[in-house]
Amino acid sequence: MSELVQPGRDWLNSRVNNFEVGRDARDRGLEKKHAVVLIPGIISSGLESWSTMPDAAPFFRSRIWGGTTMVRAIIKSKDAWTKAMALDEFTGLDPPKYKVRSAQGLDAASAFMPGYWIWGKAIENLAVLNYDHDDLSLASYDWRLSFYNLEVRDHYFSRLKIAIEFNLNVNERKTVLVSHSMGSSLLLWFFKWVESPEHGKGGPDWVERHVSDWVNVAGTMLGVPKAMSALLSGEMRDTVEINQAATYLLERFFSRSERAKLFRSWAGAASMILKGGNSVWGDESGAPDDLNNSTLTGGTLYNFRPETEANNSDVTADTTHPNLTLDDSMSFILEKVPVSYQTMLASNFSFGIERDEEQLVKNNGDHAKWSNPLEVQLPKAPSMKIYCLYGTGKETERAYFYQNGGYEHDESPNVDFDAGGSAEQAPVCLEPNCTDTTPRAPLDLPLSRKVWIDGSVTLDDKNVPRVRSGVVMGDGDGTVSLLSLGSMCVEGWKRPRYNPAGIEVVTHEILHSPLAFDPRGGPTTADHVDILGSSELNDAILEIVSGQGHNVKDQFHSEIRTIAKKIRWD
Q1: Beta bridge partners of 403
Q2: Which residue from 106, 304, 318, 551 puts its CA 20 to 30 A from 72's CA?
Q3: Does the structure show a pLDDT above 60 at 433?
Q4: pLDDT confidence of residue 431
Q5: First-to-last CA distance in the chain?
Q6: Which among 471, 488, 465, 476 is positioned nearest to 527, based on CA atoms?
Q7: Contact at 8 Å (CB) between 401 and 305?
Q8: Is 211 exposed, middle or buried (0-12, 13-18, 19+ CB in 10 A)?
Q9: How far apart are CA 105 and CA 82, in angstroms?
Q10: CA-based angle 106:111:114, to the nearest 5?
Q11: Which residues are listed as membrane-spanning (predicted)?
Q12: 222-251 pLDDT, tens per residue?
């Protein structure tokens, strides 16, 4: 047992071994050539409290997201923490009297907690090739904000543009952009922003002049099924697979409805809603990534059992009623969320698929389209190269079984119908110490039903995808479905419609082969987050930043090429 455990323990804890990939690359003669900017994904960047309110003052300039201070803040004052972390539902910016900003510098996303690295190992290996603050930076950001508001409030994209221009104008180096997860969607938005004559004003050739390569690591290009469950009911596989005692404590401390409300205030998370509709993700008749001879399709995102079967745990594929495809599910979610959230989605994001090239060009002027690779074109940068590196071979949530509960009131403002019929027209008491509230109308009935993941559903039949605790599993990296990770890389961006400059795209899959007793999987992992410590990934990054990207070649362990061809592109 000691012999099995020791290699993973040594790799996890030894500072010497942390530099091993970089030293091997240096010994092969690799030298730094390009500047590097790292762009983290959602929840990776630490967030600091700049609030001076009495309940938040004890945590001033401390991390209330990421780090041990976050845990203390949640335990000591969950209400204050929630108020600070939530965004205003109408403006999408800071709530009144609270102020939270992203941490800055390489340490902003080097580790989430002490000992739990994120970008730390990649930074260490780059340092072996003599990278430092002069030519290596991490563009952290407040991932709660919509991409548009990141520029409005923090001037994030202006700062990123200046940093990349500095690399060329001062250091005389083009930049390699390395993005992870949601950071890849954000980077796609940046490309369109910087080209825009009304926004970034960099011109159509800015990317060509400044960017050498884009390393797209585990990019959420077509969205994440997990986002669909989190927005609908505040759940995901991580919350439904814990034991009953932990579930009870979680619900008592931070209920499903509280989690869903907080998630919905984070407009940035909406960038991970599934894109392409049924054309990409399938329908009742099947999905591109269905297994051969499947009797349950991933094309139905939300599955509901007949209510007569609600208390029957003996469920098979024949007793299920899959009835909500992705197109249906979007409407279903919109029925459950406040009008303010619907407005935010419509003004910031788009989730369709555009097949008309003239319209794709017109979309250059619509920032709501820029994070969707199915509705915008890649930049006109023929010499830039895109590397898609992601993991495969790990069970990943793909669809869900849900259960209906009782009816509930929505979260819309109360309305005094006698005063005019709308919340905006209802009288408001402006007197000091006023405690009057507008009562509900006598016939104000609950309009929607509670829903939650039906954890009693488990299907292990070899002819259907595995279903565990109400979650339908598929291939991916443990977080992002294979369909989202690779489809644009192997098929979408091979089409001139979406890639008019003919940018070369290399797809390099990494097989998930974790060490059995290493808590993070060791150097052979390909998990969505832990892949940032993978030896294979780090070696590929070092080859690319050294100008030897031709050594990183197409590599496939999955059926992504076959799957992507089944998408209804035309």
Answers
A1: 452
A2: 106
A3: no
A4: 41
A5: 55
A6: 476
A7: yes
A8: buried
A9: 25
A10: 130
A11: none
A12: 999 999 988 888 776 654 444 555 555 555
- Six-digit token string for 329: 């599910």
Tens-digit pLDDT profile for residues 390-416: 999 999 999 999 887 765 555 444 333
Contact residues for 146 (Cβ-Cβ < 8 A; gap 6+):
92, 267, 268, 270, 271, 344, 348, 349
- Annotate 56-84 with b (16+ C-beta within 10 A) or e (fewer): beebeebbbbbbebbeebbeebeebbebb
Q: 505: closest CA among 280, 241, 184, 169?
A: 184
CB 187 within 8 A of CB 199: no
Distance CA 453, CA 256 (A): 11
- Inter-CA distances, 546 with 29, 36, 213, 370, 385, Å: 10, 10, 11, 30, 14
How confident is the model over 112-167, as pLDDT tens digits?
Answer: 988 889 999 999 999 999 999 999 999 999 999 999 999 999 999 999 999 999 99
Identify the helix (H) or strand (E) that includes residue 156: helix 156-169
pLDDT tens, residue by residue, 455-509 = 888 887 666 788 888 899 999 999 999 999 999 999 999 999 999 999 999 999 9
Query: Please, which residues bridge with residue 321 across strands?
Result: 304
Radius of gyration of the chain (CA): 24
Domains of the chain: 2-46+103-221+380-393+477-565 (3.40.50.1820), 53-99 (no CATH), 225-273+277-350+396-409+452-474 (no CATH), 411-445 (no CATH)
Range 263-273 average pLDDT:
93
Active-site positions read 181, 477, 528
Neighbours of 462 (CB within 10 A): 7
Pairing of strands 175-180, 211-217: parallel
454 token code pair: 């039906």
* pLDDT digit string, tens, across residues 251-261: 566 777 788 88
- What single letter denotes the amino acid at residue 91? T
Dihedral pair phi/psi, residue 332, rounded to 5°: -65, -45
